[in-house]
Design brief:
Elements (H helix, E strand, L loop, with lengths): L23 H12 L4 H8 L1 H11 L6 H22 L4 H5 L22 H16 L4 H17 L5 H18 L4
Helix pairs in contact: 2-7, 3-7, 4-6, 6-7, 6-8, 7-8
Length: 182
């Protein structure tokens, strides 16, 4: 499969800095994620994007475009990791203590990188929109799954809202970049 995101410029996001670690905004974001329901099964179900989208395809009797989904994951991951390393924002649990808060996060292997932006948000959005374009009758369902994947990262206390917001923006921009290639 050809590289769909070849030429997609991630440098334009390097000036979109996260809130400072010790800022009032970060404190408010910690309070926001701490107020979300605890739902470890939802969080773990959405952690594997391939499986989450595959369930929707199966439920609707649709062939699952495994190559497309895997390609999008493979192409987005290093681009997002470059941004994560550029900003090097700590995960919420690492900053909570400095505000006198405790966060009960859901332990996942996917939480070993810096926090900003949310890679799951990027991937959930771009894959959901791509599958929605491929299967227009099920567009809303696939796009909702992408949103749920993004939300699950905050419910799991893996990301701040600002991580998810930038991740969703990048996912939307990536889809706009590839939509004519699908």
């Amino acid at each position: 499969m050809n590289k769909l995101l070849s030429g997609f410029d991630m440098n334009k996001y390097k000036n979109q800095k996260p809130p400072k670690d010790n800022s009032l905004t970060t404190f408010k974001e910690l309070k926001e994620i701490n107020s979300l329901r605890e739902d470890p099964s939802f969080v773990k179900e959405k952690d594997n994007q391939v499986s989450a989208f595959k369930k929707i395809a199966a439920k609707n009797g649709l062939p699952f475009p495994k190559d497309l989904v895997n390609s999008l994951i493979d192409e987005t991951a290093p681009k997002v990791l470059d941004l994560k390393n550029h900003f090097n924002r700590p995960r919420p649990k690492h900053l909570a203590g400095s505000f006198g808060m405790k966060l009960k996060d859901v332990k996942m292997d996917s939480m070993k990188t810096p926090s900003y932006p949310s890679g799951h948000s990027v991937q959930g959005i771009v894959i959901g929109k791509a599958l929605g374009k491929l299967y227009p009758k099920h567009k809303n369902e696939f796009e909702k799954e992408g949103q749920d994947i993004s939300l699950s990262r905050r419910i799991g206390r893996a990301h701040f809202k600002s991580d998810s917001v930038l991740g969703e923006k990048i996912g939307n921009d990536m889809f706009d970049y590839i939509k004519d290639k699908i």
